[in-house]
Amino acid sequence: MNTVSPLDHVRIILSHTSHPGNIGAAARAMKTMGLSSLYLINPRLFPNKAADDRAVSARDILEKIKICSELDEALESTVLSAAITARPRGLSHEIFNARQGARELLRYARQQPVALLFGAETSGLTTAEVSKCQMIIHIPANPEFSSLNLASAVQVMAYELRMALIEHEEPIPPIGSPANFNELELLYAHLEQVMIASDFLNPQKPRLLMQRIRRLFGRARLEKEEVQILRGILTALGKRW
Amino acid sequence: MNTVSPLDHVRIILSHTSHPGNIGAAARAMKTMGLSSLYLINPRLFPNKAADDRAVSARDILEKIKICSELDEALESTVLSAAITARPRGLSHEIFNARQGARELLRYARQQPVALLFGAETSGLTTAEVSKCQMIIHIPANPEFSSLNLASAVQVMAYELRMALIEHEEPIPPIGSPANFNELELLYAHLEQVMIASDFLNPQKPRLLMQRIRRLFGRARLEKEEVQILRGILTALGKRW
Question: What ipTM describes this predicted complex?
């Protein structure tokens, strides 16, 4: 498809990245979710073989990468930008979690460019960087160890953006065609008859056992073909009774 | 806090991992989301320095790691297990996306162990491995490049499990006492034996039929008592063969 997806309007910006492997891994994470626009602000080492290696099949993203010397340049023409932080800070920005933040960004990305800004591996984003963004997104994490790998943080946000894009689509349709009421009743009758014939079920007080069976198979939401299989087994087993 | 979290009941199983760095990165991804139980099935290289390096502060997870030679060992005593795949396959189990799957797993993890099974980096999971699980989870991805890095896939699932934990504090529908892996395997073995004895199943080509059966009962999430009932029926029916 050559139509523009809202994900084409989403820019990932990595600020002052130390390890080039993380740049490659971020590119791969982006591509798996359908993102393609990557900006770097003053990377320590790039281009670099480690970046290429970790990108695997996402080297096309590395080839189109934009390298900037300042955040303003990377944010140019965006209509909404989010600073991604491990811990929400006591700043005046609106704070979203990853899911809410992705939804909010995508609302805007349907029309215009938006950006997600990720800080350096160890030091994170500076206050000055955060203050250039309109919102803060915080990825919920273990309070005792909230240090996501940079590419993992990109992966989670890219995943949430994709989920925000597809979440109103139809659920995956069920496989096979469901058995109808009549087919199920014939199955239960068949099962009951075989159970009585084999002395497993006492016809004087059958109710509770058959209820359990109905509940069990009711939960499974049997398909037509499955009912045929089960009845085939019962026929084979019942032959000698 | 020393109380048991449902996340303590979530087991991550990595099958036949090639790159030890991915094991370390998976451990870090788990720890950032509060998971701690990691199992390996026949890793190519472990323990290994690359694993330690990528784990950063999650080496405690590597130290407690369980190494198994077979999937059955890793799945022991779990009540629900999910195969994580990039693409949903044709004849398989109930399919969930990452979000729905995490919610379903967490419902069970409040009481008992559950597992997420990840395949080898290049080849993924085998059909035999998938068929031992009760559900399939597929991480929505770019159809043109769906190859998430192994640790990134672990990160997304761990993140969704954490989100499932924190987002809904609503009442959870009661679950009976779920059958565990071992009880289910005994049921399948019993059923297979009776089907062969009654000539319903040709042991020369048993695979497809047993897969259908596993899929059907996998969807039903059998309870202990239900397994007893089904095996009771099989015993009664099998008496004269």
Answer: 0.83
